[in-house]
Amino acid sequence: MNKQFVILSLATAALLATSCAQHQYSMADIQRSRIVIDQRYDANPDKEATAFLAPYKQKVDEIMSPVMGVAACDMPRFRPESPLSNLLADILVYSSTRFGEKPDFAVYNMGGIRASLSKGNVTRGDILDIAPFENKICFLTLSGTDVMELFGQMAMVGGEGVSHSIRLEISKDGKLLSASINGKPVDPNASYRITTIDYLAQGNDHLEAFKKKTNFVSPQNEENNARFLIEEYFKDMHAEGKAVEAKVEGRVNVKK
User: Fold this and answer.
1) 35 or 151: which carries more pLDDT confidence?
2) Which of 48-52, 60-64, 171-175 has the highest mean pLDDT?
3) List of residues 6+ apart from 168 with CB closer than 8 A
């Protein structure tokens, strides 16, 4: 990209901005086409573009390539329950101790998991692919009645990530059939402490029962970001000589 082209582009943008401020326009037509970006473009790379990006690529690789730990198996994401959603919910529970919390269970939404995890070394870049958002861990309390409403909302979407203490049975048409926490039925008169991410705590992803939360604790420092907690978990396991593993174990069952 030469300097003349850049100057012309900036001048055109400025002219359009000025023109739009003075006149009203309406859309007359839309035409589009698909441009497939795949490995064919790697055959003849643009040398000038490659050279320009080289120092940035080196910096990105320095940040993203360090190994955080090891995955003992492939961990995909799928409903109603998956190895990766189980792992991430359990990591929230594991991380709670640093905040002096002892939650009864954790919730991690399937929509917030943006990639699967492959067996082998897990880099910082892999974790960023899984959890790219600025979602942070948080803690809240719901009554047993509200917890059952929450589980019902999970059933409606076909399941979400829940920690090891939870067992849900749902129907094919999205109804909650039964629920237990630590092997016991949910007590409507009890209070339950929950850890999740702040995005869900606001009632997003159809989990509106979270709007009834009390005793809400939401630390906002960068190190409270979910992906940093995932990193720390992998590093802790790696320091202990352990590969991280997770599997489907019946936390959310769809009745056949």
Assistant:
1) 151
2) 171-175
3) 151, 154, 155, 159, 162, 176, 178, 179, 251, 252, 253
